[in-house]
Design a protein that fits this description.
This protein has about 220 residues and is an all-alpha fold. About 70% of the residues lie in helices and about 0% in strands.
Length: about 220
């Protein structure tokens, strides 16, 4: 009888142990299901957030669409710039032309051209005539004579009676001589002498030089 009682007790212990394991298994499955649901919800929220951000960027908006907040990393404000990191003062047209003419003197023609074009692309002002003349000079320095001739003539057209006009017409003649178009160069020199019969000494001297080079008559 003792042995039968022992066997009965063992069976009861095994059954109790099985029930305990089954209960633990059910609990674990419940926890796993709960975790899976949380992961799926987080993934869905993250996917929506990314989609909203992409939509906002494609449509040129700084924030996210539909009121969805951006990730925390994206909302962190940049550090304040110190006084040493302050941006340099913006150059005025006068500053740019000063730098451009300095570049021209050291034969840095591409820099001179860039400075001239920067002024020309800005607001209209009398400085643009000087910029147009600088552009013509920089193009001539690069031996782009055809473009230079057009730029010189544009300088003249912008202000036919201005201070740059005689030099601009002389520049037209000089570049046409360089191109081998002597007849057109002589026409430019004739226009110069007709419209400015008493130019500065340097203009008159240079006019004589180019008349000889172009073999102008008269």
């Amino acid at each position: 009888m003792a042995r039968n009682d022992d066997n009965a007790n063992l069976v009861l212990q095994l059954l109790d142990r099985v029930n305990t394991l089954e209960e633990q298994t059910r609990d674990m499955r419940g926890q796993i299901d709960q975790l899976n649901n949380q992961v799926q919800q987080q993934n869905a929220a993250l996917s929506k957030q990314i989609a909203d951000m992409n939509f906002a960027m494609q449509n040129g908006h700084g924030g996210t669409a539909g009121g969805t907040s951006a990730p925390a990393a994206a909302t962190v404000a940049p550090p304040l710039a110190s006084a040493d990191d302050a941006a340099p003062a913006k150059r005025t047209a006068a500053d740019i032309l000063k730098d451009g003419n300095a570049a021209l003197l050291r034969q840095d023609y591409t820099t001179a051209q860039a400075d001239a074009q920067q002024v020309l692309s800005g607001p209209k002002s009398p400085r643009q005539i000087d910029a147009q003349y600088l552009l013509a000079q920089s193009l001539a320095g690069q031996k782009q004579y055809r473009q230079s001739a057009l730029a010189y003539y544009d300088t003249y057209n912008r202000s036919p009676h201005g201070a740059r006009a005689p030099s601009a017409l002389l520049g037209v003649a000089a570049t046409l001589v360089a191109l081998g178009d002597k007849a057109s160069a002589c026409q430019a020199l004739d226009k110069l002498s007709n419209e400015f019969p008493e130019p500065e000494a340097r203009i008159r001297s240079a006019e004589g030089v180019y008349r000889k080079k172009a073999k102008c008559s008269g």
